[in-house]
Amino acid sequence: MAAILIDLQPGDEVIMPSYTFVSTANAFVLRGAKIVFADSSTENPNIDAATIESLITSKTKAIVPVHYAGIACDMDAIMAIAKHHGLFVIEDAAQAIDSFYTGKDGVKKALGSIGHLAAFSFHETKNIISGEGGMIAINDRQFAERAEIIWEKGTNRSAFFRGVVDKYGWVDIGSSFLPSEIIAAFLWAQIEHLDAIQERRKEIWNRYYLGLKDLAKGCNLSLPQIPKYATNNAHLFYLICETSKQREQLISYLKHHQIHAVFHYISLHSSEFYLRSNSLKELENTDYYSDCLLRLPFYYELSSDNLDKIIETINSFYKNV
């Protein structure tokens, strides 16, 4: 919907991080856009805002920052670049429910409320879920009326139900973006209990961090870093191993102890699809995260006993490395 709303045309360019899920890129590829991948930051997998301006051309239409693990990108820098060049900002806030950014003005803003548009996910892996589906946030009034039409399969049906028009028909492009009421009800029940869900998830995140921080100091292992301008919504907890080989060994060791830990994204700039029509570019930080980042088990009902077992097993592995 966001790609449609900014009137993306074939040949337009969209800047985004390579370290993200394919859905981030697909939304724009399906409108004919050329994806321009930016490298990640050295601090975390988020887009390195300092690299964006050098990627802008006369064809650039939008910047798509992805708030990886629910941790805010440097939105002041990104919004300033977009304003200077007349670009749209579409936040990929798929993992960012209940997470915030504090700008240089001291104002705390919810992620997804800063760019012109934003997209959230309620996939089964997220903090609150509907199985599949998501939410678009409209932060610029120029898009509000058309967004409703696109959402309603390209019709002005909602306006008809409000009594604004005496009949409704096909007035624009659109698709079946509406969730069913059963799915919406399932999601709403979790929204009502968001504070309790988040409290438990933060307990899990903090237990991981406290249980592994001493280990990280003593070996080449990195834990998540939260910038001062960001909050932590405890979407996931990850480790960054020293090498891809070490990550493979750790995954195998955990599996042997009945613990399922997995790596995350394979960088999109090195994907089979992208390389069919593009040459391989060097994105050093992106490749590092792709090769070395490991996600630990994380879900609301993860017990304290199992948490302790995971932490103890990781510590045990590194004693023998």
What is the gist of this entry?
This protein is an alpha/beta fold.
Distinct helical segment count: 11
Main sheet overview: 6 strands, mixed
CATH architecture label of the largest domain: 3-Layer(aba) Sandwich
Tally the beta strands. 11
CATH-defined fold name of the largest domain:
Aspartate Aminotransferase, domain 2
**Percent range for helical residues?**
25-40%
Give the full name of the CATH homologous superfamily of the largest domain: Type I PLP-dependent aspartate aminotransferase-like (Major domain)
Rg on CA atoms, Å: 21 Å
Strand order of the largest sheet: 2-1-3-4-7-8
Describe this structure as you would to a colleague.
There is one protein chain. The chain folds into 2 domains: 2-192, Aspartate Aminotransferase, domain 2 (3-Layer(aba) Sandwich); 194-319, Aspartate Aminotransferase, domain 1, CATH 3.90.1150.10. Helix content is 36%, strand content 13%. The protein contains 11 helices and 11 strands. Strand 1 (13-17), helix 2 (22-29) and strand 2 (34-38) form a beta-alpha-beta unit.
